[in-house]
Structures are given as C-alpha cells and as structure tokens.
Amino acid sequence: MFEPKICWCHSMSTEMDDLITLVKNLRIAVDEEKGDDVQKLLDSVLTLIQSMDTEDGEDLPALVRHLATLLEWKSTGVLVKTAAVVAALAKIESGRTACCCSRIILPLLGLLTSHTETQLLVQVCRALGNICYENTDGNKLVVEAGGLPAVLLVLQRAVSVSEAPHSTQLRSCAAGCLLNLLMGQDYLYPKALELGIMELLYSVLELGVTKEGEEAAIHTLVILGLLTDAAPGTLTLSEKLCNVTVKALEASTSGELSELCVELLHTQAENESVRLHLAKAGLCELLVLLLEKHRPLVEDDETRNLLKMACDLIIIILNGDESMNLLYGDGKGKVFQGMVSWLTSTDDDLQITGVLAMGNFARTDRHCLQMVERGVSKKLLSLLAKNNTSAADIRLQHALLSALRNLVIPIENKGVMLGEGLLDSVLPMVAIPTFPVVFKL
Predict the structure, then answer these.
(1) Which listed residue, 6, 88, 216, 273, has the most CB atoms within 10 A of its CB?
(2) How many whole angstroms separate alpha carbon 427 and alpha carbon 441?
(3) Mind listing the GO molecular function terms for this protein (predicted)?
(4) Sequence-ordered alpha helix ranges (H) in 13-146
(5) Cα(first)–Cα(last) distance of the chain, in Å?
C-alpha cells in the first residue's frame, strides 16, 4: 500500500455502534437525497474509520452498499468524500475485502475515466490503490474492468498538468495506485510496456524529486525495478532513463530514494550499453562525491551495505572498456583521480574499491605506462608491504595482486616495478595458503 498501513486491534464496541448509527443516518440521507447531510455524515464516517481500533467487518457491507450508491451521485463534493471513505476503509483488511466488489470498483474506474477534477482523481486513485494492496482478487477485478490503461492515463494527466494545484499529490497517488496494481502481477508487464509505461515513468522522474514529488519518484523507481527485474537482459534502461535516474540520485534528500536509485542502477549496470550511459551521465563522479561526503555517517549495517553497493557499482561500470576509458580521461579524469586518493583511505571498503579500480584502469599498455610513471605502482606496493601476511584482509590482497599483475605486463614497467620493491612486497605472501592469493602470484 502506498500509504502507511494502520495496525488494527480489537476495540470497544462503542465505535462499531457509532458506525452503525452513522450508516443508518447515511441511508436516510441518501434515500432523501439530502446532499449537505450526506457530506457531513461522510465526514463523520471518515473520521470514525480513521480512528477505529477494530477489524470487525460485520457491519461494513451495509456501509459499502451506501457508498456504492453515492459513487453514482452528480455532486463532485459528495463523490470526493465518498472516494475518501472508500480509501480509508480499504486500508483495513476487512474493509478491503468488503470493497473488493464490482459495485465499488466499476464506479471508481468510471470516475477515473470521466472526471478531470484533481481532488476527485486523487481520492479515487487512493481508493483503488488500497483495494489492490496485496489483494489478488481486487487486482483481477480492476484489471478486467480496464484499470491499467485508466490509471496510466491519470498518471499521464498528472504529468502534463504538473504546474496545476494538487498535481504533485495526484502524481504520487496515481503512481502508488499503479505500483499496487502491478506488484506481483508479472502477466501485466507486457501490456504496461505496450501502453508506453517506460516513457511515462521517465516523465515522472523528469519532473524532479523535490520534497513534494519525492513519493511519486519512489513509486516510479520501484515500478522500474519490477519491470526490469522481470525481464533481465532484455528490458534495460534507455539513455534518457539513465540520465534522469542519476539526476534523481543527485537531487535526493531521502535515504529511501537514494537507495532505490543505487539498487536500480546496480542491477542495470551489468549491461554494457547501460554502463556507458551511466559513465556519460556522470554517475561515478557523483558516487565518489556522495561516498566521501556521507562516509562519516555510516554507522550501521544498512548504511554500510548501501556504501558497499555504491562502491561495487563504480567497479561494475569500470568493467566496461568504453566506460573505463572515458572515466580514465588520459589520467586526468575525476573518477581516476578520486580512486587514486582512495588508496590511502582509512575506510576499508573505499580503499579496496580504489585498488580494484586501479586494476580496471590498468587494462591497456598505455594506461599501465602512465600509471607507473605517475607513481600508482609505488602506492600499491607500499600498501601491499603493509598487508602481505595471513592476518591481512584477503579482499585487499586479491585486489592488490590483480592490479599489480596488470601494471607489470608492459616490458617497460617490469624493471621499474622491480626497482620499486615488487619482490620484497610479494615474496612474503608465498607462505599464505589462500588459493586466490597463490593464483595471483
């Protein structure tokens, strides 16, 4: 559900008694078509539902019947309040079950396709999204009634009128509704792609990730993750989507949003073309900046794992030949220089990432010659001399030996690196009985 789920417990029967009384009064007002009374009663019902501590759904079908009638009314004010009550009701499991019926879903979808009033569309998207939350039956009813294209059209509308009042709220609710509709429903993905969902999701992210638009961006990134995970290797991010996701990461002030950006890009970066898109979009430069800025704040496993994923993402991008050459920048690239500086970092993960990066940059003779000339080999050998026993971190040893192996390949470098103490640093490692280290020797 794209709204915080309420934890409902058993409560005093007085709340249900109050609800029963309100339902009876609502029935009378509906029968007598007293619009003002109906709106006041709906406000009372909404307030009561939001404060109730019960999962007792015995009297909910009666309420749902009256709500279904009200969803056919002409008054926009009544329609907005009715949809809001349905949305609140569908946040409760028993209420979601009661609302999971054609008499509620069909009128809601009718409103979605026939009205343009933003506040009404917001409440209808909330109602449909909550009905679909972890609810296969609800999803099925919404889909069979044409819900997927209808929700996509509303999201498109929210994007196209981005400057209008409440459009940000509509964008968030429509994206949340779309997420709940698609979650766990892989069979819908081809249809969604056919209807142009990728371009639409790009448009949502292109509007930025201001504090107000953050929720819509979060929903959008989760949807992108669902779609791409379901078709690994065949559905990849376009250059436009790569660019806009990097911009979202740069602008983000939300830990959740930043994590979603990194996770999505980490998965997608295994594709060679995506690697190059991300390198050109400046992702690695951004990650270096963010990692250096936020490293002092890494104090728990969750943030440490995110740091490791970001480091790994840099290395994955450097695995590509074109992206590696681009980021090397003839030895003047910001990423290359940043990775050299990480060789002396006090953070183990940043230091290991720097060493791994040196191994990736040292994949051409020209780079190897330049790197040795600029003292990179000296830095690596100095680091190895401090970590050439069985007590050292095997990840660091593995990375150091890989980088040194690449650097020593050009004939011109062999004598230089021997003179820098290559043998003195490496020979003590012969006694280390760890297979990867022995293999690198």
Answers:
(1) 216
(2) 9
(3) guanyl-nucleotide exchange factor activity
(4) 13-31, 35-51, 60-70, 76-89, 93-99, 102-114, 118-132, 136-144
(5) 54
Q: Tell me 429's DSSP state.
A: G
Nearest of 53, 39, 48, 41 to residue 11 by alpha carbon:
53
Mind listing the pLDDT tens digit for each residue in 349-384?
999 999 999 999 999 999 999 999 999 999 999 999
246 contacts 204 by C-beta, under 8 angstroms: no
CA–CA dist 281, 323 (Å, integer): 11
The pTM score is 0.89
CB 423 within 8 A of CB 441: no
Total Cβ atoms within 10 A of residue 103? 14
Give CA–CA dist 197/260, Å, rounded. Answer: 19
The number of beta carbons lying within 10 Å of the beta carbon of residue 140 is: 14
Q: Where are the alpha helices (DSSP H) in 231-320?
A: 239-251, 255-268, 272-280, 283-294, 301-318
What does the alpha-carbon distance between residue 163 and residue 166 come to, in Å, rounded to a whole number? 9
* Regions in the chain scoring below 50 on pLDDT: 1-12, 438-439, 441
In sequence order, what E strands does 141-282 have? none
Per-residue pLDDT, 385? 94
Residue 345's closest CA among 311, 300, 318, 317?
311
Q: How many Å apart are CA 371 and CA 102, to the nearest integer?
A: 69
> What are the start and end residues of each CATH 1.25.10.10 domain in the chain?
17-143, 282-440
Name the CATH architecture for the domain at 282-440.
Alpha Horseshoe (1.25)
Tell me the C-alpha to C-alpha distance, in Å, between residue 57 and each of 9, 95, 165, 247, 411: 12, 7, 36, 46, 80
What CA–CA distance (Å, rounded) separates 153 from 187? Answer: 20
- Candidates 206, 189, 187, 117; CA nearest to 152 is 189
Topology annotation, domain 17-143: Leucine-rich Repeat Variant (1.25.10)
Please give the C-alpha separations between residue 259 and each of 13, 248, 291, 354, in angstroms, as whole numbers.
44, 11, 13, 22
Distance CA 423, CA 410 (A): 17
